[in-house]
């Protein structure tokens, strides 16, 4: 395992970084917040068509890049650094589930659209590998799941449900009878979520091992979220360190005071450790699949709490301005709080890790 990016990964990182700086800076997030849009549809089209991000883990035979977990981690880190709103996490988890499930008919039907960015498919999984409270009887689904990523924008939902005592995945079309989708209002403006309520809703059962597919999706979610969190953590550290150099108190920059510089040094140390864990998880996803779930859970445990600390430090060390609406620190803090618990927080991941390690 190496902490150094390959030349290909560096090129991908630089391409995404330039694209984000030009097309989706934090100012664009504020514009979307004011307009109520969940994300910029034009930016999403460019992310999919020009950069091929929607199909990163989609097999080449279905129009994807088949780039793997390491490339996904690089991309999500850059997007997390600028809090770019998009349905990428939603479609990535859906694609990963379909690939692992192995239903060739569903793959041929859904994966090309996902890879092109034209089809938004989301996985209705509220907690790691769980079927939630949805039950199936004769192909009709009843229950509810929340939060569901980009529920308000999805055209197809992959819904895990308990059918005759076992977990089965169903494909449910948006607008199906008995389906009620409600947008959830959260503190994180960069992530769109919703509540999915089903009342006798028809669904198409998918063939394959749903339990294994959901377990893989849980690991993929941990990797992707940890990558986003690491990017956000790095951004918090950079903005706070820069401010500590120019903000003067008692005749000197505040970065000269131990209470400031030691706290920033702790954030930097935590970032390095989290980065190492994340790189190991990404490599495991590509090269050691039997270790992927555990490695991704470790990365998530390490990054989640430290991102929250970095975001808290960013707000506090900026002083009075850090608490204002005009400053960006609060955007990262809200993102850190929201991400901390999404798909199971550190406590849930420790339980998952304990079960995986026996």
Q: Please outline the major beta sheet.
A: 4 strands, mixed
Low-pLDDT runs of 5+ residues are none
Distance between the termini: 24 Å
Highest-level CATH class of the largest domain: Mainly Alpha
- Percent range of helical residues: 40-55%
Strand share of the residues?
15-25%
Task: Give the domain tally.
Answer: 3
The topology string of helices and strands comes to HHHHHHEEEEEEEEHEEHHHH
Q: What is the CATH superfamily label of the largest domain?
A: Butyryl-CoA Dehydrogenase, subunit A, domain 3
Under CATH, the topology of the largest domain can be stated as Butyryl-CoA Dehydrogenase, subunit A, domain 3
Whole-angstrom Rg: 20 Å
Mean pLDDT: 93
Strand order of the largest sheet: 1-4-5-8
> Which CATH architecture of the largest domain would you pick?
Up-down Bundle
Structure summary, number of beta strands: 10
Structure, described:
- The protein has 358 residues and is of the alpha+beta class.
- It folds into three domains: 7-116, Acyl-CoA dehydrogenase/oxidase, N-terminal domain (Butyryl-Coa Dehydrogenase, subunit A, domain 1), CATH 1.10.540.10; 121-209, Butyryl-CoA Dehydrogenase, subunit A, domain 2, CATH 2.40.110; 211-356, Butyryl-CoA Dehydrogenase, subunit A, domain 3 (Up-down Bundle), CATH 1.20.140.
- The chain contains eleven helices and ten strands.
- The chain has helices at residues 7-23, 26-35, 41-49, 69-81, 88-101, 104-116, 210-246, 258-287, 289-317, 329-341, 346-356, and strands spanning 121-123, 135-137, 140-149, 156-163, 166-173, 179-184, 193-202, 204-205, 248-249, 252-253.
- α5 runs antiparallel to α6 (104-116) and α7 (210-246) packs parallel to α9.
């Amino acid at each position: 395992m190496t902490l150094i990016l390959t030349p290909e990964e560096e090129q991908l990182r630089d391409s995404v970084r330039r694209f984000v700086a030009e097309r989706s800076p934090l100012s664009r997030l504020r514009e979307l917040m004011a307009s109520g849009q969940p994300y910029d549809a034009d930016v999403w089209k460019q992310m999919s068509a020009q950069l091929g991000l929607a199909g990163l883990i989609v097999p080449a035979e279905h129009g994807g890049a088949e780039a793997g977990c390491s490339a996904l981690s690089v991309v999500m880190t850059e997007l997390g650094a600028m809090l770019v709103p998009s349905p990428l996490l939603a479609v990535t988890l859906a694609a990963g589930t379909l690939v692992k499930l192995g239903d060739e008919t569903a793959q041929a039907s859904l994966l090309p659209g996902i890879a092109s960015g034209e089809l938004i498919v989301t996985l209705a999984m509220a907690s790691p590998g769980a079927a939630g409270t949805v039950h199936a009887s004769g192909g009709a689904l009843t229950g509810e799941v929340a939060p569901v990523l980009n529920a308000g924008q999805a055209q197809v939902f992959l819904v895990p449900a308990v059918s005759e005592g076992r977990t089965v995945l169903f494909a449910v079309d948006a607008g199906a009878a008995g389906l009620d989708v409600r947008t959830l209002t959260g503190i994180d403006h960069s992530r769109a979520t919703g509540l999915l309520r089903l009342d006798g809703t028809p669904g198409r059962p998918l063939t394959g091992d749903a339990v294994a597919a959901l377990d893989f999706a849980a690991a993929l979610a941990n990797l992707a979220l940890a990558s986003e969190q690491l990017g956000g953590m790095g951004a918090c550290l950079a903005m706070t360190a820069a401010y500590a150099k120019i903000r003067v108190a008692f005749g000197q920059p505040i970065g000269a005071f131990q209470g400031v510089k030691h706290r920033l040094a702790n954030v930097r140390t935590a970032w390095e450790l989290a980065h190492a864990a994340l790189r190991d998880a990404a490599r495991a996803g590509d090269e050691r699949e039997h270790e992927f779930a555990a490695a991704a859970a470790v990365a998530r445990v390490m990054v989640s709490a430290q991102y929250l600390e970095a975001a808290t430090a960013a707000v506090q060390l900026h002083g009075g301005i850090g608490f204002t609406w005009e400053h960006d620190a609060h955007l990262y803090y809200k993102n850190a709080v929201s991400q901390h618990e999404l798909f199971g927080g550190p406590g849930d991941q420790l339980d998952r890790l304990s079960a995986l390690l026996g």
